[in-house]
Amino acid sequence: MRRSRIVGMGHFVPERVVTNDELGQQMETSDEWIVQRSGIRERRWVEGNVGASDLAVPAALQALAEAGRTVADVDLILFATLSPDLNFPGSGCILGAKLGIPGVPAMDIRTQCTGFLYSLSTADAMVRSGMANCVLVVGSEVHSSGLDISTRGRDVTVLFGDGAGVAVVAASDDTSGLIDHELHADGRYAEILMVEAPASRLTPRLTKEMMDEGRHFPKMDGKAVFKHAVEKLPALVHSLLGRNGLTLADIALLVPHQANMRINELVARHLGLGPEKVMHNIQKYGNTTAGSIPIALHEAALEGRIQKGDLVLLAGLGAGLTWGGTLLRW
Question: Is residue 287 annotated as part of the catalytic site, yes or no?
C-alpha cells in the first residue's frame, strides 16, 4: 500500500529575542508572573514588515535540503496559519511565488493551533491517494504585529511568539511514516479564543471605535481553554493509541502543541508520562500556534530525542475549538 512519511524538516525563528523582563518594561507584568503561569521565559518577534510567508521560506528550504529534494520536486503546498500575510490571497500562494514554483497548487488551512495537524493529515491523504508525491506542510506565524502590547492585553500578549516549521511529506514504501490521525472541532466554544474584528459579519468590518476598544486584538478565556485541553488531550491520546493496538509504553516521545507549559505538564501527568517522553520548547519561543508542533518536532530530532523507527505522537488543541493528533513512526 502506498504510504507517506516525513522525509525532511526545517524551522526558522526571527533573531530578535524578547524576554519577560523586556515585556515588564511595557506593561504591568514580571518574569516571575509569566513563568509561573505559562513556563515561557522568552519569545522571538520579527522586526519590520515581515509576513508569515517570509518566515516560511528559510524553513522550507532547510526542510527540502534535509529531505534531499529541491523546490522542483514540490507538487503541493499546505500552509497552516492564523496570521496570513494578507486577508487574501492565501500565504501558500505567496510562498509558492517566493520559492519560484508557479503553477504548483497551494492551500491555506485555518485551524489555528491544530493547523499543522490538519495539514499533515491532508498531506497524508493526498499522497496515499496518488494526487501528490511531495508536499510542503508549513506552519508559520507572525503574531507580534497583532498583539496589544499594553497591560490591557498582557494575558494574551506574553504568550505568543513568531516562527515557522516545515515538513516535507513524500510517498514512501518504507514501513516508517504517518500511521493515523484523529481530528475534532467544536464551534460552540469559538468565542473563548478569537479575534473579533475585522469581520465580514460586522458592517463596517472595522471602525475606529472597535480599535479603541481593542476588538482587533486576540482575546482568550484562559481558564476555559486550559480546562478543555487537560480534558480532551489525554482522551485523544488514548483513542489514537487504542485503535492502533498500542499503549503509552510504545511511544518514544509526545510532541504537544506549545501553548502553555502547565497544560503540557498536567496532560503528561494524567497520561503517566515522565519528562523524558514529552518535548517542551515553549520556554524559548512562546506559543507559535501552527508553527509550534513542527518546530518542536524538528528540534527533538536534531537533539537526538527521536531515532529512526521510534513511535512519536503529536497532539494539540486550540481556537475553534479544534483538537487533534497524529501518530507516526520516525
Answer: yes
Q: What pLDDT, in 10s, does the model give residues 262-308? A: 999 999 999 999 999 999 999 999 999 999 999 999 999 999 999 99
Q: How many structural domains compose the chain?
A: 2
Annotated catalytic, 20?
A: no
Condensed to tens digits (0 to 9), the pLDDT of residues 127-144 reads: 999 999 999 999 999 999
The catalytic residue among 113, 134, 260, 280 is 113
Catalytic residue among 143, 281, 287, 298: 287
146 lies in the same domain as 188: no
Please give the model's pTM, rounded to 2 decimal places.
Answer: 0.97
**313 shares a domain with 236:** yes
| Residue-number span of the structural domain to which 42 is assigned | 3-173
Is 228 catalytic? The answer is no
What is the distance between the alpha carbons of residues 242 and 246, in angstroms, rounded to a whole number?
6
- Annotated catalytic residue within 257, 260, 264, 281: 257
Q: Strand, helix or coil at 250?
A: helix
Secondary structure of 39-63 as H, E, C letters: CCCEEECCCCCCCHHHHHHHHHHHH
